[in-house]
# Entry
Amino acid sequence: MSRVTAKICGLSTPETLDAAIAGGASHVGLMFFAPSPRNLAFDAAAGLAARVPASVSRVGVFVDPHDSLLEAAIRVGKLDAVQLHGTPPARAAAIKARIPVWVAIAVKTRADLDSALDYRGAADRILFDAKTPEGATRPGGMGIRFDWSLLDGFRHAMPWALSGGLTPDNVAEAATRTGATLVDASSGLETAPGVKDVDKIAAFLKAVAQC
# Structure
């Protein structure tokens, strides 16, 4: 059995969701952020959530959400956890009192990693993702990777996952290089922004299974 598991993020159709589940994804990501091409309306999220077996975790992805959005999405998406971008530690801790929290940390330099330490006790998992360019309209899902060597020797304060530009071709190298036991892919499995490809999903999960 592989030591590495995978989250397929930004799923938006029954076919791609089913491909992620069939390929062995441990987590599926449902996006609730309007500027993203992967954003889900609540009825679409509910339909996808209903297809997910109990063995696979549903993770809702948010950018510093307000309470009404968060509560509605947790309900309709039957979420098992929420992934937060741009959310301060105190706010993350308050949300963590209701549901498990992942916090995304945008990484470009070694110093960026240190902000993960601010979330000790405020998050259940850290997701290290690549920092997007200045002026970008969204904090991730743009196919950018960061320098994996930045993680060398970093003392992780809690469970963590690796994201940012992962594809079927580089995920094995990424997991080996960083020691990640959970990897997260989105744009690297698409033919256009927001359009997942079932063959790329299958190839990615096959590569993960061989790690």
Observations:
- The chain has one domain: 5-209.
- The first helix runs from residue 14 to 23.
- Helices lie at 14-23, 42-49, 67-76, 89-96, 110-113, 171-178, 198-209.
